[in-house]
Amino acid sequence: MDQNANLAEQREIVARILIQDEDSPYWNTGDSEGDAMRLAELTQAMDEWLTRGGFLPVDWSVAPGEDGKD
Q1: Residues 16-30: pLDDT tens digits?
Q2: What distance in Å separates the CA atoms of residue 24 and residue 34, rounded to the nearest whole number?
Q3: pLDDT in tens, 9-62
Q4: What is the pTM of this model?
């Protein structure tokens, strides 16, 4: 599984579901029910991957303090 692609797709779907701004590129572009189902599939796949010892997506792999936010 490409966990980085999974996370990127999850973020795109979340933006389509949550962003209700006419100026957003995601405005009214998705099928909310289909998006919700796809998000559930991606979330389940990510959970199974991590539960079996798979490595984190790159965006989640920063150690505390390395991102300059701590």
Answers
A1: 877 766 676 656 565
A2: 20
A3: 999 988 887 776 667 665 656 577 888 899 999 999 999 999 999 999 999 987
A4: 0.71
Tokens of 42: 């991606």
Question: How is 1-33 classified by DSSP, letter by letter?
Answer: --HHHHHHHHHHHHHHHH---TTSTTTT-S-HH
Question: Under a CB-based contact definition with an 8 Å cutoff, are residues 40 and 9 in contact?
Answer: no
Closest alpha carbon to 39 in 12, 63, 58, 62: 12
- φ/ψ region of 65 (left if φ > 0, alpha if ψ in -120 to 50, else beta) reads left
The CA distance from 56 to 46, in Å, is: 9
